[in-house]
Amino acid sequence: MAAVKRSLESIVSRLRGPMQKALIEAIRDLQQASSVRLPLACSPSYRAAPAAEVEPAESVAEEALPTLAYAEEFRPGGLPLDRGISYAVKVLRDAGIETFESCQGGEGHVYPEPAVRFYGQRGEGYRAVAVAITYGLPVKALRRYWSVEREELVGPEWEITFWASRLAEVQRDAERCGQIR
Questions:
Q1: Is-contact 173 39, C-beta < 8 A?
Q2: How many domains are contained in the chain?
Q3: pTM reported for the whole predicted model
Q4: Is residue 33 in some structural domain?
Q5: What would the pLDDT profile of 33-65 be if each residue is shown by its tens digit?
Q6: What is d(CA 27, CA 169) in angstroms, rounded to the nearest whole number?
């Protein structure tokens, strides 16, 4: 928990004005929320990735694992939720983040790295990062993007990405600890 607190303090200290206020408010909201539990209560295997670390994308081997019931609940457009990103999606959705697209990344997947896309106003990205860090998810980047559909800008929307191997560890711990089934 001390490492998470240091990470959050470091992020808050780099922000100024409304962004800093939005993150502080998101952290306070999280502290008051009691419905989401820390996934690593039964195993301290998570280690924060150094900021300059470069990591190749890798995915959780899905072939040998049974499908999770939680992953089966989400089939927008008939597509299943990737097992390797399902815990990150659950944490974000349980905290009220409105996710709409995700991928565990790696070979054979659309994204090169684990990613979750979500809707929200300006402060929602900071809240998502606060949620993810608080619950041990290894955040790599946060992006605000616009897409072009029929020659029209659509958005902006948010995307949060994760360090692949660290996320795989968190996913395994969450499954082992019964945080996701």
A1: yes
A2: 1
A3: 0.64
A4: yes
A5: 544 444 333 433 333 333 344 344 444 444 444
A6: 24
Is the CB of residue 117 less than 8 Å from the CB of residue 144? no
Tokens of 40: 């690593």
Residue 134 C-beta-side C-alpha neighbours within 13 Å: 22
pLDDT at 49: 36
Between residues 118 and 77, the one the model is more confident about: 118
Q: Which of 107, 106, 92 has the alpha carbon at shortest distance from 159?
A: 92
Of 87, 47, 77, nearest to 181 by C-alpha is 87
Tokens found for residue 82: 């990737």
**How many angstroms separate the CA atoms of 19 and 126, rounded?**
8
Residue 83's contacts (CB-CB under 8 Å, 6 or more residues apart) are 60, 62, 65, 67, 68, 71, 104, 171
Whether 181 is covered by a domain: the verdict is: no
Asked whether residue 140 is assigned to any structural domain, the reply reads yes
Which tokens belong to 84? 């390797």
And the tokens for 81? 């939720």
Encoding tokens for residue 107? Answer: 């070979």
Name residue 89's beta-bridge partners. none
CA angle 50, 53, 59 (to 5 degrees): 110
Residue 30 in domain: yes
Query: Residue 67 is part of which domain span?
Result: 2-176
CB 61 within 8 A of CB 78: no
Q: Cα–Cα distance between 47 and 178 in angstroms, integer?
A: 20
